[in-house]
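Duplicate of #3305? Posting structure anyway:
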């Protein structure tokens, strides 16, 4: 019985010693630098081609052989609600290792010397963001650094133009609309309301709401494009059509215009376009006849 107790104590001591040596062994890895752009625009993965944005991480392995470490990067990616989601290594390289594309962030094998990693980051909600990088070796934290990045919002604008076509007993006004983004951030889910107001009766006679997305620095984005019947040609389409007649309104439906109004010559209308994105509002109005 006594021998069994002694054997148990010896095994426990051996396990403790191994664990102590494992967890308190020499630290061979450190974070040398974090390089990043201090200012970026809001990012949406579904909106066209945008600037690639990476956090460049340089790790130093002082050992003479390869070592495995666990990399944790906090708050490198956020969704549309500002919640952190997992990011990934887009490019991983060292002086003697070929690049690997799109690796999940986790365990990384480091060669002796400098090792360079690129972590993709992107944010849909503007504001100041903090990225935290932690390196674990043998299950314990060996180094940590953080950086702060300012996410700049888009700058939304609305412009209106019109054309006038005269027919016997009719005046037809076509209003064309375009959106613009003069900011470095992209915008998704821009809610745009188009309304025609009869100023004579002070009532909204036609209204619709659509959603748009804009890339960064997209200075001109037409709100309506009409395709031909064979879809081989496209042309700029009006977002609103107003017909003023001298007597009886026509039977023309003016499809596929978003909003249509008909009145008598002498009536006054106003086309109002309001674009909203998060806390931004852009508005444009046009009087018909102007």
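Output from current build:
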């Amino acid at each position: 019985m006594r021998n069994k107790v002694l054997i148990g104590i010896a095994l426990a001591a051996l396990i403790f010693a191994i664990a102590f040596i494992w967890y308190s062994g020499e630290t061979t890895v450190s974070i040398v630098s974090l390089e990043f752009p201090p200012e970026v625009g809001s990012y949406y993965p579904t909106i066209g081609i945008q600037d690639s944005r990476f956090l460049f991480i340089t790790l130093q392995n002082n050992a003479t052989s390869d070592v495995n470490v666990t990399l944790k990067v906090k708050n490198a990616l956020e969704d549309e609600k500002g919640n952190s989601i997992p990011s990934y290594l887009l490019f991983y390289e060292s002086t003697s290792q070929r690049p690997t594309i799109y690796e999940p962030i986790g365990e990384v094998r480091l060669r002796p010397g400098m090792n360079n990693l690129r972590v993709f980051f992107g944010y849909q909600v503007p504001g100041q963001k903090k990225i935290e990088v932690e390196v674990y070796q043998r299950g314990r934290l060996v180094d940590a650094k953080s950086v702060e990045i300012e996410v700049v919002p888009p700058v939304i604008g609305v412009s209106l133009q019109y054309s006038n076509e005269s027919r016997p007993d009719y005046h037809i006004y076509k209003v064309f609309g375009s959106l613009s983004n003069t900011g470095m951030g992209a915008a998704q889910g821009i809610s745009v309301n188009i309304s025609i107001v009869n100023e004579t009766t002070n009532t909204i006679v036609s209204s619709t709401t659509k959603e748009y997305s804009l890339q960064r620095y997209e200075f001109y984005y037409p709100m309506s494009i009409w395709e031909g019947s064979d879809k081989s040609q496209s042309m700029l389409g009006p977002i609103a059509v107003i017909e003023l007649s001298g007597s009886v309104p026509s039977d023309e439906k003016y499809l596929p215009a978003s909003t249509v109004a008909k009145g008598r010559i002498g009536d006054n209308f106003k086309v109002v376009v309001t674009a909203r994105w998060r806390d931004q509002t852009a508005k444009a109005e046009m009087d018909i006849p102007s």
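Confirmed duplicate; merging threads. The first helix runs from residue 2 to 23. The chain has a mean pLDDT of 85.
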